[in-house]
């Protein structure tokens, strides 16, 4: 009875002889100049990765700082709104500063004509 799997292949009868350390020796020639090129390339790549990682850490730190500032500002604005409401100050009906500046500039233009 067969399971549908192919039969296992036996190991080759003549494997290459192992070297002193127990591993088979590759037939590739050792080129010290090419090895040094790879070593320099890996070192440059490693330095670039470290540089990118430092930059990313700075960006993350700045992001956390900005989030903290935004949270503090929002809390301060809410506290100020509550305090002004407690004093029954009519601050919600006050004209916006930008609209006042626009009116002033329009008035200056009319005077200069």
What can you see in these coordinates?
- The chain is mainly α and 113 residues long.
- Helices cover 63% and strands 0% of the residues.
- It contains two helices and no strands.
- The chain is elongated.
- The model has no long low-confidence stretch (mean pLDDT 81).
Keywords, please?
113 residues, mainly alpha, 0% strand, nucleus, INO80F, INO80 complex subunit F domain-containing protein
Strand content: under 5%
* Structural class by sheet pairing and helices: mainly alpha
Share of residues in helices: 55-70%
Q: Strand count, sense and closure of the main sheet?
A: none
Average pLDDT number: 81
Order of helices and strands: HH
Count of DSSP helices?
A: 2
Global geometry? elongated
- Indicate the low-confidence ranges by residue numbers: none
Q: Gap between N and C termini, in Å?
A: 107 Å
What would you report as the Rg, rounded to the nearest angstrom?
Answer: 38 Å
Which oligomeric state applies? single chain
Please count the beta strands (DSSP E, at least 2 residues each).
0
Biased composition (Pro residues): 7-19
InterPro entries: INO80F (IPR056513), TFPT (IPR033555)
Keywords: Nucleus
Main location: nucleus
Short description:
The protein is mostly helical. It has helices spanning 32-86, 97-112. The N and C termini lie far apart (107 Å).
